[in-house]
Amino acid sequence: MIVYSIFVIVGILLLIAAVAALKQSLRFVRSGERAEGTVVRVAELEDADGNLYYPVFEIPTRAQGTITYRHGTSSSPANWEVGEKAMFIFDPAHPESVTFLRYWRVFGWPLGLMAVAVDLLVVGGGYFLLRGYFGG
Predict the structure, then answer these.
(1) What is the mean pLDDT of residues 40-51?
(2) Does the global pTM surpass 0.85?
(3) What is the pLDDT confidence band of residue 136, given thresholds at 50, 70 and 90?
(4) Do residues 113 and 18 touch, judged by C-beta distance below 8 A?
(5) What is the mean pLDDT of residues 24-32?
(6) d(CA 42, CA 55)
(7) Which residues touch 8 (CB under 8 Å, ≥6 apart)?
(8) From CA 53, how far away is CA 124, in angstroms rounded?
(9) Which DSSP letter does residue 12 get?
(10) Which residues, including other chains, have CB under 8 Å from residue 47's CB and lie 6 or more apart?
(11) Are 124 and 7 in contact (CB under 8 A)?
(12) What is the pLDDT of residues 103-117, one digit of tens each?
């Protein structure tokens, strides 16, 4: 019974965190500046496994001119070519907040937390709701 109580408590805490993160993501999408960035070069990094490639984007902004953004995920072979374009979103007051404007990039963490929270609440809450049916 203690395990199911812990499931419910952790589920509630995760649900609260997920809703807060979702609100923050929605606020970011509503107030963020959107811009189309262009790959200006593909950075190459040698690794023990071979060469890794990172796209480097230049993103024009309304106030700061341009933001240079090096994508944090590498690939081998290169997934991006010079001249390719992608949509970005960022807080104009904090240009370092730049991120790809993709559904999972913006809402991935809140939705993942919510999925785990709901699972824990269903298992823990289901135990308390249905324990009479199973002789518990």
Answers:
(1) 86
(2) no
(3) low
(4) yes
(5) 94
(6) 5
(7) 120, 121, 124, 125, 128
(8) 45
(9) H
(10) none
(11) yes
(12) 999 999 999 999 999
Q: To which residue do tokens 């991120």 refer?
A: 99
| CA dihedral (30, 35, 41, 42) positive or negative | positive
Angle between helices 2-31 and 103-130 (to 10 degrees): 150
Around Cβ 70, how many Cβ atoms within 10 Å? Answer: 10
- The answer to whether residue 57 scores a pLDDT higher than 80 is yes
Burial 100-115 (b: 16+ CB within 10 A, else e): bbeeeebbebbbebbe
| pLDDT of residue 70 exceeding 70 | yes
Q: Token pair for residue 29? A: 């999408």
Q: How far apart are CA 60 and CA 40, in angstroms?
A: 12
4, 67, 5, 12: which is closest to 35 by C-alpha? 67
CA 130 to centroid of chain Cα atoms: 36
Provide the residue type at 4 as one letter.
Y
